[in-house]
Amino acid sequence: MKKTFKRTLRVSKYVIYKETLIDYKEHFWSFLGAFFGIGIIAFIQSHTLSVTENIFLIGSFGASSVLIYGAIQSPLAQPRNLIGGHVLSALVGVTVFKIVPDIIWLSAPLAVAFSIVLMQYTKTLHPPGGATALIAVSSTGKIPELGYWYVLSPVLSGCIILLLVALFFNNLTPNRSYPNHTRFKKLLRKKHAHPHKMKK
């Protein structure tokens, strides 16, 4: 029993040590990705949508940025999870709001709970998706007026921008690879190998 406990403690210490190692280069690319990802969405909202008072920047995109720029190897940060999690949660949120629009104590938990189960069922679990569903039922002003358009914009369009930025910044160096998918990694290796062959 003592040996098992000591071994578990050693493994835990090692994992914590690895997670807290400071890699300034890694932090630099995470910063750039998040800056440009959120920056592009904020720029579009402030310069092109301010006249129509449309919403393009929602809070759950900030949480997504932590995953897709800061924890790129996480299963929860992969493109399927990013797009699927947000879109499905947005659909759930809007649907719940349409069924029970004025009972926030019921619509809020229903939207979040249903979105979690749907993400689990479709294997698109993405924690910020819960916030996307909650925004759909708890916001005032423009978002309730959007109805199912909320799913397309800001949710889907914003996710696509975040993903495109992630694909660019998360693959600029050999140490970073996104998405964490075997086929995509093979494709990247082939692309990196072609220039060397041409030089020879």
Automatic annotation (TrEMBL):
Pfam families: TM_HPP. The chain crosses the membrane at residues 28-49, 55-72, 148-169. Residues 22-179 form the HPP transmembrane region domain. Coiled coil: none annotated. Keywords: Membrane, Transmembrane, Transmembrane helix. This is HPP family protein. It comes from Chryseobacterium taiwanense.
